[in-house]
């Protein structure tokens, strides 16, 4: 029997793209079961786009500023992503909240990785907020995106210790190492084994 075609991933980025790189590296192994078919961004000139281009993965940029309204941007982003017929869309450091067009099209298969243990510390300063609060354990959460800010059903979480001498930078980096491993593991599990979501509980067969 021939192996099934790999699942099609579209990855959305806004920055350095180290999570994207981890997915690109993992998908080099056919046994992983997924391949990155496109990388989208909300801005030009970021390392994440260079990482995709370096391995010949198509890229596209939809900047909010390029559209008259946020709704137009949401519709354009949705159309661009749809062109690549994704099985799963991964927000990997994508710093934009998608809108109703995107969620209507892909709300059942759009995941995000966040660098805090949700529901604590949502938003764009997870490690900074965790450190300021004085928590002793921090981490990362992988979840299905819904219409809220970092509120969707949780797929997986990973914890790391907070050290007494941590700075925002050292804690962020410790979280990112664990976060990348979690992302690679769970994207693979989702595409290979499928999932269900019921009453916020993400389960696999
Ligand atoms: C990740 O830690 C993610 O949780 C946060 O931004 C970071 C993205 O890093 N929202 P990178 O661009 O994948 O290196």
Share of residues in strands:
15-25%
Helical fraction equals 25-40%
CATH architecture of the largest domain: 3-Layer(aba) Sandwich
Strands of the biggest beta sheet: in what spatial order?
A: 3-2-1-4-5-6-7
Helix count, DSSP H or I runs of 4 or more residues: 6
SSE topology string: EHEHEHEHEHEEHEE
Low-pLDDT residue intervals, each spanning 5 or more residues: none
The biggest sheet amounts to: 7 strands, mixed
Q: What would the average pLDDT be, to the nearest integer?
A: 97
Please provide the count of β strands.
9
Principal-axis shape equals: globular
User: Helix/strand-derived class?
Assistant: alpha/beta
The number of domains is: 2
CATH C-level category of the largest domain: Alpha Beta
Quick rundown:
With 205 residues, the chain is an alpha/beta fold. It is built from six helices and nine strands.
């Amino acid at each position: 029997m021939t192996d099934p075609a790999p699942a099609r991933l579209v990855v959305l980025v806004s920055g350095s793209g180290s999570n994207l790189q981890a997915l690109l590296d993992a998908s080099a192994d056919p046994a992983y079961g997924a391949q990155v078919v496109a990388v989208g961004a909300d801005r030009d000139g970021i390392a994440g786009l260079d990482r995709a281009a370096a391995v010949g993965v198509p890229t596209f940029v939809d900047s909010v500023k390029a559209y008259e309204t946020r709704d137009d941007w949401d519709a354009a982003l949705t159309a661009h992503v749809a062109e690549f017929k994704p099985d799963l869309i991964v927000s990997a450091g994508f710093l934009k909240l998608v809108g109703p067009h995107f969620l209507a099209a892909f709300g059942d298969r759009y995941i995000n990785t966040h660098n805090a243990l949700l529901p604590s510390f949502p938003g764009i300063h997870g490690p900074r907020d965790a450190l300021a609060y004085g928590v002793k354990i921090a981490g990362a959460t992988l979840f299905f995106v819904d219409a809220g800010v970092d509120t969707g059903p949780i797929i997986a979480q990973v914890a790391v210790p907070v050290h007494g001498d941590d700075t925002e930078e050292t804690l962020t980096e410790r979280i990112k190492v664990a976060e990348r491993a979690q992302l690679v593991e769970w994207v693979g599990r989702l595409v290979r084994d499928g999932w269900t979501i019921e009453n916020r509980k993400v389960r696999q067969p």
